[in-house]
Amino acid sequence: MRFIVEPDGSIANGEVFFDSTLLAGSGAPDGMKLDINGNLYCTGPGGILVLTRMGNTSGRSHLQSSRPISIGVRRTARRSTSPRERACIEFV
């Protein structure tokens, strides 16, 4: 679900953001993290899902483990010039 956050902190206008029941495999989205571009990374049926800010699937990594339950996104401590190299995904 996604909502509008009102100025007083209340939420309104709830709507379905992404329906994971359409994906094959067991599990449900969990361990959600956002990147600086608004992409949502989360565990889900069969692996890691990457969703756009509009709720469309832009990527899916299938994992051999039974069911991933969490994901973390962090910047590495090593020096790098590429934004892609500075971010990594930890499979927990």
Question: Can you walk me through this structure?
Answer:
By secondary structure, the chain is mainly beta. Helices cover 4% and strands 43% of the residues. The chain is built from one helix and eight strands. A four-stranded antiparallel β-sheet has the order 3-4-5-6, with no helix packed on it. A two-stranded antiparallel ribbon has the order 1-2. Strands 7-8 form a two-stranded antiparallel sheet. The protein is globular, with a radius of gyration of 15 Å. The model is unreliable at 78-88 (pLDDT under 50).
What attributes characterize this protein structure?
single chain; 92 residues; mainly beta; four-stranded antiparallel β-sheet; two-stranded antiparallel ribbon; 1 helix
Low-confidence blocks of residues: 78-88
Number of individual domains: 1
> How widely separated are the two ends?
24 Å
Percentage of residues assigned to helices: under 10%
User: What composes the largest sheet?
Assistant: 4 strands, antiparallel
Q: Mean pLDDT score, rounded?
A: 75
Q: Overall 3D geometry?
A: globular
User: How many DSSP-defined strands?
Assistant: 8
- What are the secondary-structure elements, in order, as H or E? EEEEEEEHE
Oligomer: single chain
- The percentage of residues in β strands lies in 35-45%
Radius of gyration: 15 Å
Strand order of the largest sheet: 3-4-5-6
Structural topology:
Elements lengths: L1 E4 L5 E5 L14 E5 L5 E5 L2 E5 L5 E6 L8 E5 L7 H4 E5 L1
Antiparallel strand pairs: 1-2, 3-4, 4-5, 5-6, 7-8
